[in-house]
Automatic annotation (TrEMBL):
EC number per UniProt: 2.7.1.-
Cleavable signal peptide: none
GO molecular function: ATP binding; phosphofructokinase activity
Record-linked PANTHER family: 1-PHOSPHOFRUCTOKINASE, 1-PHOSPHOFRUCTOKINASE-RELATED
Keyword hit for Transferase: yes
Official protein name in the record: Hexose kinase
Length: 308
């Protein structure tokens, strides 16, 4: 089982419109609502890939019940309400505009302790862990790092796909795999790398400090991975257009699926799969879904290069 942790879940709302233009009224042609959040999207995609995954984290009673009706889930009921994310999807070209609410504040004094106990109990049946997404107000920034240390102590791989101060603290956990975008990497290292070599150097410095691997996502430009075995870049010759919401979650699902398997990781293959799986999410209208046929077709198109 691969365990995912979503600390700040959301109801994902997708509005489909024709000829979307900011500043004017639109008629919405279709509306979709589903339980979401970064870790939940990772669980959805893993289950699509045939990998059993269970989601945990914080929620309210209504959200937890809705999640449990759709997928394996075991949430701590600690939120007074769950936020929404709204994606306006242009029907003609598939592009999307996303609005994310900050979420509720967790006020329960024992909420974090409950989550740590819950995760500790689930680790015995887990082959890997993903901690991803933003943090709700009232939660200390060290929680993703604490969860990563629990996974490390259990001897299982862990991805931290988090932001801001939480990412800085997670980067100090030995053996962790980080998946920042360029903005998040800049926050950690203090400068913004531009070229592939500069990105690899910056990510490699975090590996030298103890991370097992750092995979930097670059949107349509692909990804750069620095690992203990070397550094690589990967990209599609022609990027897919569409809705990028959830593309990073798809990449995390591909990476953790490989790390949960026995044997040493083959990072060029992992990075290739991550780029193809991410692109297979971009072509979908809603986050947490991939087109399996697109993923399979694109794997052979990914350009992978070793970075010296």
């Amino acid at each position: 089982m691969i365990l995912t942790v979503t600390l700040n879940p959301a109801y994902d709302m997708t509005y489909r419109v024709q000829n979307f233009e900011p500043g004017r009224a639109h008629q919405v042609s279709a509306v979709e609502q589903r339980v979401g959040g970064a870790g939940i999207n990772v669980t959805r995609i893993l289950n699509q890939l045939g990998k059993y995954s269970r989601a945990t984290g914080f929620a309210d009673h209504q959200f937890a019940a809705a999640a449990e009706r759709e997928l394996p889930a075991d949430f701590v009921h600690a939120l007074p309400w769950v936020r929404r994310t709204v994606v306006v999807n242009e029907c003609d070209d598939g592009t999307a505009t996303s609005l994310s609410e900050p979420g509720a504040r967790i006020s329960g004094l024992d909420a974090v302790d409950q989550l740590l106990v819950r995760v500790t109990g689930l680790l015995g049946d887990s082959s890997a862990v993903v901690v991803s997404g933003s943090l709700p107000a009232g939660i200390r920034s060290s929680i993703p790092a604490e969860l990563a240390r629990l996974a490390g102590a259990a001897g299982i791989p862990v991805i931290c796909d988090v932001q801001g101060r939480a990412l800085e603290l997670a980067a100090a956990v030995p053996g962790v795999v980080l998946m920042p975008d360029l903005d998040e990497l800049e926050r950690v290292i203090g400068t913004r790398p531009d070229t592939t070599a500069e990105i690899a150097d910056a990510a490699g410095a975090l590996v030298e400090d103890g991370a097992d691997a750092v995979i930097v996502t670059r949107g349509a430009a692909g990804m750069v991975a620095a690992t203990r075995a070397g550094a690589w870049s990967a990209a599609l010759p022609t990027p897919c257009s569409g809705n990028p919401t959830g593309a990073g979650d798809a990449a995390a699902a591909a990476v953790i699926s490989a790390l949960a398997a026995p044997g040493q990781p083959d990072w060029p293959d992992i990075l290739t799969d991550a780029v193809a799986t991410s692109a297979a999410a971009v072509v979908m209208a809603v986050a947490g879904e991939i087109d399996l046929s697109v993923r399979q077709r694109l794997i052979s198109d990914v350009l992978i290069e070793k970075v010296s």
